[in-house]
Specification:
The structure is a single chain. The protein is an alpha+beta fold. The protein has one domain: Jelly Rolls (Sandwich), CATH 2.60.120. A five-stranded antiparallel beta sheet has the order 1-2-9-4-7, with no helix packed on it. It has a five-stranded antiparallel beta sheet with strand order 6-5-8-3-10.
Amino acid sequence: MSMSKTRILSLTLALIAGSITVSPLAAAEQALKRTDLVKGDVDAAGYEVVQVLVGFAPGQTAGSHHHPGVEIAHVTKGTLEYSLQGKAPVIVKTGQSLYIPSGVVHSVRNVGDGEATELATYIVRKGETLLVPVK
């Protein structure tokens, strides 16, 4: 049995047994690999910059969410599909970047065959939750 089938079977059995409760968004984001890189104040009062490296397994999705400020996503490896509220999905490949305006609901999915990574830079209101899930 493949590793992904084994993992799915294990999660399914755990859910059936009632030992864990996972929302679809939380389950999708569990496999995301996030590395915090930089966090600091910027010259605009009440704002800070946050930079993270996010890894996506093949087919992995970061469900619908928004941020309390802007995001600049730079794909460092692979191919990601970004779906921004009110716009057609856009494919962003290694070396390409995408600007996501403040408060815009979006999701991201790895549409390539291998791992994909993005360098996400946020300029956000200080003290607010960085990622706000949307159902």
